[in-house]
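ARCHIVE CARD
CATEGORY: sequence design from structure
SOURCE FIELD: tokenized fold
FIELD CONTENT:
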């Protein structure tokens, strides 16, 4: 499927009447547009099903993801968002957050021989964004570097399509089948390996935040496995806790190590993380 503007649903164009639009990504069953209109500045997400291939089963749930996220955003009280159906699945729009994501912002820290240290204040911004969601009783389920947008005033945690914590209408709910393995907590990886599904938790989010900070600051994954390892092999390495001996500099390194603890109960709370970084 192409991401040509002609594919945008009329109902969406009628609702937003964009004065400009830019395709941000179109991959894995999801298209994201940045749109400007007299109503505001929006991220528009369109879901469509992923067809089966030789090495990939069909994934019809990607068509539902924008509706699920839209319902979560409403539950969280984000009224400046909406969602609806289009011919290939569901769409949503939500406020666009300006700024680089964490991975891009910390690129200078990852350069070979770099003397640029990752700022604790940036890490704290990510902690605050996740803490805000947790305080409302939700777990994110897909914490990763690209999902923290570091804005001029605050950091935003985006992509709530997999979040758990409140009621989501049955019609577009779907089970959690794991996220990017680099950020999966051992108990999530084990559950996905053994049952095909898992339950996102706040403790698993804290592990994912540790893995997110580590990879953004150093370029290294928390767990050792070959780049081309099949997903099940990656999950086995994560479930077995094969940690890499990599550390971010200073206080950040210590607290990341604790967040990456194998047992959920050994991980610090976000309150403790905040204290360690302040
Ligand atoms: N509200 C937003 N503000 C700014 N940028 C956004 C917003 N929503 C999405 N984006 C941009 O679009 C990208 C993809 O968005 P998102 O992660 O929500 O979609 P996705 O379909 O889950 O993609 P992926 O499978 O890569 O996670 C983000 O990494 C970000 O660059
Ligand atoms: Mg995403």
């Amino acid at each position: 499927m192409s991401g040509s503007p002609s594919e945008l649903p009329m109902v969406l164009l009628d609702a937003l009447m964009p004065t400009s639009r830019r395709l941000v990504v179109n991959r894995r069953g999801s298209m994201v547009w940045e749109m400007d209109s007299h109503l505001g500045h929006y991220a528009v997400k369109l879901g469509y099903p992923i067809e089966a291939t030789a090495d990939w089963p069909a994934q019809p749930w990607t068509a539902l993801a924008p509706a699920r996220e839209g319902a979560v955003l409403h539950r969280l009280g984000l009224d400046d968002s909406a969602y609806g159906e289009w011919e290939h699945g569901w769409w949503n729009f939500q406020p666009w957050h300006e700024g680089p994501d964490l991975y891009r912002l910390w690129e200078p820290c990852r350069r070979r021989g770099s003397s640029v240290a990752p700022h604790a204040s940036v890490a704290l911004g990510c902690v605050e964004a996740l803490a805000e969601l947790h305080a409302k009783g939700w777990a994110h389920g897909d914490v990763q570097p690209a999902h923290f947008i570091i804005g001029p005033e605050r950091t935003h945690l985006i992509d709530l399509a997999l979040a758990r914590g409140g009621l989501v209408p049955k019609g577009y709910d779907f089970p959690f089948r794991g996220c990017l393995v680099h950020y999966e907590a051992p108990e999530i990886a084990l559950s996905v390996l053994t049952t095909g599904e898992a339950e996102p938790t706040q403790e698993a989010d804290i592990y994912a935040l540790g893995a997110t900070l580590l990879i953004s600051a150093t370029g290294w994954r928390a767990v050792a496995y070959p780049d081309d390892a099949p997903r099940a092999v990656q999950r086995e390495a994560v479930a077995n806790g094969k940690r890499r001996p990599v550390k971010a500099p200073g206080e950040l390194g210590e607290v990341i190590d604790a967040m990456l603890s194998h047992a959920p109960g050994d991980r610090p709370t976000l309150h403790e993380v905040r204290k360690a970084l302040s």
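CARD ANNOTATION: The chain has two domains: 5-95, 102-277. The longest strand covers residues 20-27.
SHELF: design records, drawer C
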